[in-house]
Design goal:
two-stranded antiparallel sheet; 4 strands; two-stranded antiparallel ribbon; 70% helix; mainly alpha
């Protein structure tokens, strides 16, 4: 059907069409206005016919094309999601290797929507973990980039200051008289000693303790999410004490520094959570003290180790207990009591080993062992043992043994 015929049919159906003249030509319709009061209504209909949103050939509207494009995008996201979920690699590795797609705002938004609309509890939990992992990796990469930018800027400023100092010194050198030059030359003999002493003073001044070191902007940003979890507003029934108990393991030394800084700046919420944390620490130290007394009361070192093994299996060995063992060992060493100090360190080592056995992954276990070991040679042995391929050999009685070095 020609477009001119459609125009005539519309003209016959609309009472005001007599006020207009339709001129069809070449398959196109043109509207020439005749004197009329109601010209606007029909002109809007004709605009719709001639517009892109009206397709006489049945090709679909622009919204249908958008739907197809959205569907194709969703299909591509589904494929990528399957790759992330079922990849043998750590998801963080795949996120970094597919950085542009994994951190794309559209994909992250699509994944977040999928989390909210999922009805399967396990799927919802897995998708939420993946979404949180992407946000966490993205934030860490951004923080690392900020740190590198800040370090580069500080280095540039230091270099500029050094260049300015050289220019000033050169300018002063030009103004020196012969007498000044001789006096300066005489000072060269002791300049090496003076420089060495100055370097030693600068090095001593540069050695700041952890608590004296500055909190960089990147460190503050890295704790923003955790601050949102432990600071008000709280859910019904939550208090600073309950929050300190729940998130106790997340209060590392750096985070305590961040909270202390906020408290010193007048943040009452940070001050309240620090007070609750101190009370929780006191409770745990008191409980660890009673536990240690019960262990030492057994008398025999072998029975003490057996009690620690039992405690580890029951999940009763915490950081407070380990720190208490270390503190007692240090105190015994300071008092010259070698025997008690050795016993405390032996119990501490056994407690750490048993706690490692309860670790969820081998990676966490290896990391803890490396952090505790001070000897570089022994750390190398731990790494070599951990990364040496092992193959289980079937032997009699349906038992298997692991043989290092087998591929």
């Amino acid at each position: 059907m020609k477009l001119s015929n459609v125009s005539l049919a519309l003209a016959a159906a609309i009472p005001t069409a007599s006020a207009f003249a339709f001129v069809g030509g070449g398959g196109a319709a043109a509207l020439s206005a005749a004197p009329s009061r109601d010209a606007t209504a029909l002109f809007g209909i004709l605009d719709e016919i001639e517009g892109d949103s009206y397709d006489l050939l049945g090709g679909g509207s622009a919204s249908e094309a958008d739907n197809k494009q959205s569907s194709a995008r969703d299909d591509a996201y589904e494929v990528f999601l399957v790759q992330l979920v079922f990849s043998p690699n750590d998801p963080r590795v795949d996120i970094v290797e597919n950085w542009d797609l994994a951190t794309d705002e559209d994909f992250v938004g699509w994944l977040n929507k999928k989390v909210s609309t999922s009805t399967d509890p396990e799927e919802k939990l897995a998708l939420r973990d993946l979404h949180g992992m992407i946000i966490d990796v993205k934030r860490k990469v951004e923080l690392n980039a900020m740190a590198e930018e800040r370090i580069a800027k500080e280095a540039e400023e230091a270099e500029q200051a050094r260049a300015n100092a050289i220019d000033v010194e050169a300018e002063e050198g030009r103004a020196l008289t012969d007498t000044d030059l001789l006096r300066k030359a005489a000072a060269v003999d002791r300049s090496g000693v003076d420089r060495e002493l100055s370097d030693q003073r600068d090095e001593a001044a540069a050695k700041k303790t952890f608590y004296d070191s500055e909190i960089t902007p990147e460190i503050r940003l890295s704790y923003e999410e955790l601050l949102g979890q432990i600071l008000p507003p709280y859910n019904p029934g939550e208090t600073p004490a309950s929050v300190a108990f729940t998130f106790y393991d997340k209060f590392d030394a750096q985070f305590v520094k961040v909270l202390t800084e906020r408290s010193n700046n007048g943040d009452a919420d940070a001050q309240a959570i620090l007070g609750a944390l101190a009370e929780e620490q006191s409770k745990r130290i008191a409980a660890a003290t009673e536990t240690l007394k019960a262990v030492l009361a057994m008398g025999d070192p072998m029975r003490m180790e057996g009690a620690i093994v039992k405690m580890a299996r029951e999940g009763k060995i915490d950081e407070a207990f380990l720190l208490l063992l270390e503190a007692n060992a240090d105190q015994a060493d300071a008092a010259g009591a070698t025997g008690p100090a050795q016993l405390m360190r032996k119990l501490q080592k056994r407690a750490m080993e048993e706690k490692d056995k309860q670790s969820s992954t081998k990676e966490v276990k290896l990391l803890r062992q490396l952090l505790r070991e001070d000897d570089p040679a022994k750390r190398e042995e731990l790494l070599e043992e951990a990364f040496t391929p092992k193959e289980a050999l079937i032997v009699s009685s349906s038992r298997s043994i692991s043989v290092p070095g087998c591929n």
